[in-house]
Write a structure and sequence with these properties.
By secondary structure, this protein is an alpha+beta fold. It is built from nine helices and five strands; from the N terminus they run H-H-H-H-H-H-H-E-E-H-E-H-E-E.
Length: about 230
């Protein structure tokens, strides 16, 4: 049996009309995507097609944002223009989060560090090690990538960390790296590296204020957990 198109639905049920009448907050994710793509296929409305796309990523928008145009094209009813619309909308959302992180100039808590760095490394499939350099009022002087590795670990040169710190006249550093696995528990090598960096900074009177392990959705703070 042929499915009814959105145009044949009651006006109260049409996503675009719902948004205009009631506002964006009550619109479901599937309905938002349906508005983007405009139409479905011969057997599915735009909303039903959108639900199927979302279902393929367990209704997780972060995972949806990782789908490429080619992967979206595999869904019947999604052509290149529709796929590009979805990718574009989700990329704008990611950039909005990134802009929010850029507005934080002063670190007041570990959550501030997370908000600054998550958009940069939180969704990467490889491990990266960054250092946030701050002055004596905890204002960010710079964010610098020190190491970039594969899926397991990132190589870190401690000398480069303090070379940059001296150039910036930083009085404190915050270590940050991501775990692509999604696990927040620090490994033995994470703890050993943290202690090595802390010790190296003592002679230079540059404090290691924290070390954050960041995943897509959360973080582990060495300082908050009392293991720094």
């Amino acid at each position: 049996m042929k499915k009814l198109s959105i145009k044949s639905w009651s006006i109260d049920d049409r996503p675009r009309e719902k948004l205009l009448r009631n506002g964006k907050s009550i619109i479901t994710n599937a309905e938002l995507i349906a508005i983007l793509i405009g139409s479905g296929n011969r057997t599915e409305s735009a909303v039903e097609l959108s639900k199927r796309i979302l279902s393929s990523v367990n209704n997780n928008l972060n995972d949806l944002s990782k789908l490429s145009v080619d992967e979206l094209l595999k869904f019947k009813g999604i052509g290149e223009a529709k796929a590009v619309s979805i990718v574009t909308a989700l990329e704008l959302g990611k950039r909005r989060v990134f802009e929010k992180g850029k507005t934080i100039q002063k670190i007041k808590s570990s959550s501030d560090v997370f908000n600054v760095m998550q958009p940069i490394i939180g969704e990467l499939q490889h491990e990266e090690f960054w250092v946030v350099y701050v002055n004596n009022s905890n204002t960010i002087l710079a964010k610098h990538q020190i190491g970039k590795g594969g899926l397991v670990s990132a190589l870190v040169d401690v000398r480069l960390i303090y070379k940059k710190a001296l150039e910036l006249a930083a009085v404190g550093i915050i270590l940050v790296h991501n775990h692509p696995s999604g696990k927040l528990t620090p490994s033995n090598s994470d703890q050993q590296l943290t202690q090595k960096i802390c010790k190296a900074g003592e002679a230079l009177d540059i404090r290691t204020l924290d070390h954050l392990i960041i995943t897509e959705k959360s973080y582990f703070s060495f300082a908050d957990e009392g293991v720094l």
